[in-house]
Amino acid sequence: MSNGPVLAIENLRTYFFSRSKQAFIRSVDGVTLHIEKGKTLGIVGESGSGKSVTALSTMGLISAEPGVIIGKIGLKTETVQKNLLRDLKDHVKINMSTGRIMSVYKDSLGWQKKINRLMKGIRGKEIAMIFQNPKLSMNPFSSIGKQIAESILLNTSISNRNEAKDKAIYWLEQVKMDSPRLRYYNNPYGLSGGMCQRAMIAMALSSEPSLLIADEPTTGLDATIQSKIVDLLAHLKTSFGVTTMLISHDIDVIKSLSDNVAVMYGGTVLEHGPARTILTSDYKYKHPYTAALLSSIPSQEHIREKKKLQVIEGDVLDTINIPDGCRFFERCNKVTDKIKEQCEHTEPDLREVFPGHKVRCFRFFRT
Ligand SMILES: Nc1ncnc2c1ncn2[C@@H]1O[C@H](COP(=O)(O)OP(=O)(O)OP(=O)(O)O)[C@@H](O)[C@H]1O
Ligand SMILES: [Mg+2]
Fold this sequence. Notes:
Layout: E1 7-18, E2 23-35, E3 40-44, H1 51-58, E4 68-76, E5 81-83, E6 92-97, E7 100-106, H2 108-119, E8 127-130, H3 134-137, H4 144-155, H5 161-174, H6 180-183, H7 193-206, E9 211-215, H8 223-240, E10 243-247, H9 251-257, E11 260-265, E12 268-274, H10 275-278, H11 288-296, H12 300-304, H13 337-345, E13 351-354, E14 357-359
Parallel strand pairs: 3-10, 3-11, 8-9, 9-10
Antiparallel strand pairs: 1-2, 1-4, 4-5, 6-7, 11-12, 12-14, 13-14
Bound molecules: adenosine-5'-triphosphate (ATP) and magnesium ion.
Adenosine-5'-triphosphate (ATP) binds near residues 53 and 319.
C-alpha cells in the first residue's frame, strides 16, 4: 500500500431537511480530517457539533429524506482505494444561492442503490463501528459467539464454520472476556454492559477492519468498567494497531488513546493536530474554542490541580442559520479589535499554523 492516510475526509457536508422548519440542518458543514495508518484520531466537541453524523456519513449510513452528502470521503486500505461518495451527486440536484443550499431534489432509490454499491465490502469489513449502546447494536436473539462467527464468515477468508467458531473464541479472548468458551453461547442480554461492550469490540475487530469507528464506546458504562474498556482499547491498539476514529466527550479517554485530535464545532473542524499539543492547556496555537472546551470538561487534570470548571458562555451554534464569519465568533473571548471585522464577516480556513497542526482562527493568520 502506498503512503497516505487511511481516511481522508475533505469538505464533507451532510445536511438534513427539517420539515417543521422548512430549512436545512447543516449537521456537518465542511469537515476536513484525516487519519494515518495505525493512528487514532480523537474527535471532541460539544453535543450537536456533528461528530456522530461525520461517523455515520463515513459508514454510508445517512439515509434521512432528503439528506444530502457532498464532499469527499477517501478510503485507502490494502485492497481498496476509493471515494466513498463517488458519483453520489448524480442522484441529487442542488439549487444553491449565495453559497447556501436552497432546495434539493433527490432520486432516493438511485442514491440508496449507489450507496449500497459503494459500501459493498466496505461497511463491516473495511470499516467497522462500535457504538455507545452495544445491546441495541447486536441481535438480541442470537448468541454473541454466533454473531461474531457469522461476521467472520462474511468478512474474512475463513469459510469453515468450525474455524469461524474458533476464531470467534480467539477474539473473545483478545477482548479479555472471562470464560470465552462459555460466553460464546450467551445472548447480549445475558451479559453485563461492560461484557457486552467487549463482545461488540470483538465483533468489530473480528472482520480485521482497516478502520474502526468508536462512537462514545465508554459512555453509559459505570466508571470502573469505563476505565477497564479504555485499558482494553489501549491494549488492542498496541497489539493490533487498528486505525481508529474515536469520538468521546471524555477528555481522559481521548488523552489515553489518541495520537491526533480534531475539535468540532457547529458542523466543522476548528482545530486538528497532535493530541499532546491540542490537549495541553498552555499550547500557543490553541483555538479559543478548544481552550474553552478543555476548561469546561472535567478531567483528571482538573481533579489533580483542583481547577474550577469554566462555562462556555452563549449558546451552541444554530446549524440552520450558520453565520458568514467564524462560527465561534459570538462566544469567543479572544477577539481583538484588530481581527474583529474579519472574524465577524469571513469564515477562516482550517490552516496549518505549525507543521501537522491546523487551526481555523484569525488570531494565527490573516486571509
Ligand atoms: N437524522 C437526522 N435528522 C435531522 N437532524 C439530525 C439527524 N441526525 C443528527 N441531526 C442533527 O445534527 C446535529 C449534529 O448531530 P450529531 O449527532 O452528529 O452530534 P454529536 O456531535 O454526535 O452530539 P453528541 O455529542 O450529543 O452525540 C444535531 O443538531 C442533530 O440534532
Ligand atoms: Mg454523537
